Amino acid sequence: MDNKKIRVAITHGDTNGIGYELIFKAFSEPEMLEFCTPIIYGSPKVAAYYRKAMNLPAQFSIIQKAEDAEDGRINLLAAVDEEVKVDMGLPTDESGAAAIKALDRAMTDYRNNLYDVLITAPVSSQNVKIEGYTFKGHKEYIETCIGDRNSSLSILIGGDLRIAAITEKTPLAQVAGAISQESIVSKTTLLWQTLKRDFLITNPRIAVLALNPSINEEQSCGKEEREIIIPAIDHLADKGIQAFGPYPADEFFGSGYFSEFDGIMAMYYDQATVPFHALYNEDGVLYTAGLPLIHTAANTTPCYFMAGCNEADPTSFRHAIFTALDAFRHRETSDEVGTNPLPKLYHEKRDESEKVRFSIPKKHAPSPFPSKNGKQGAPKGNEQKEVQNNAPRNNEQQNNNQKAQQPNKQKAAQAAAALSAVLSAVQAGQKPASKE
To answer: Could you give the residue range(s) of every CATH 3.40.718.10 domain in the chain?
Structure first.
């Protein structure tokens, strides 16, 4: 593995949204160019327009092909016609076409091995029109260009939370009929493989959420849990994958138990996104797993209402860049280890009290909820941590720890409340309010 800078392709997204603002602000720190070599697939004219309109301190060099990209500068590849009209804040067919032109050029260059990872600025599927094809999003379009259909998986990443869904864009009324043992096993296996290869987690622990609410030790499981989800978890355990559950989502997030797992598999889109947005609304990253190309994006829409206002926060976009860089290095390391295997003497740590993460058989999977004796279940690796936390501390230490824990507890409570509202709406046959 050499020390060359990673080449990062960045598509400009919808030209009437916040794409260029996110890109220029993300690279406003000179240190960013020390980590990678950016190649923006876009329009020099549109880029200059946004730079002037918002007085952004962005200096870029215009290139005609990716081979001309140089380290230490922002390279802007002219992938779109200069005649693109900018209507800030308005989703137009022209802005959608400009987004696809940039993405198509990036796909062509990827097939020619001209860059290493891809970050996409936000687009709206409503104004992207392709003859003979219904555009649903970046993930699906990239699949048609370089991968197999239905082979990828969207993972939302924020902090230590990594969550995906079995049914990503299925109407709620059709979710129960859309899940199957096969889909749960295949997508959870893909999540597990991604955590190992792209995140270097030696033995990932994955929580599988229940479809129905209020499923616990003292209540009978719903039909879907009994006939589909639990058998799928058993099958995963037989394959050597540490999958646990099913856990009722509202209690799972409300208790903060999600932090004990490396990955979470939800059953449907809102079950994953509602708690995620409550916990990591400002800095979340969307990661596409299962493709040969590492692809990330900021967890945001084009935000037309914000276009040109110089108010967009680049934190999520910058995190998307760092996530892609880390995944690229991790994948190289993982593939190198796979080619030249050596005995592993030390396993992935969860905390300082857990020196080795052991595999826990499915029948011993922990329960996050109070059992009949009133004891809260927890992964066995944390038992020593609980004992250590009972050691005497001075008042200042206790106060500082309590203050540090309050924001996380508040966010977890907000996530649980938001998800409960979604579950109530589903039970009442209503459509939950969508997030722009």
So the answer is: 1-155+283-340
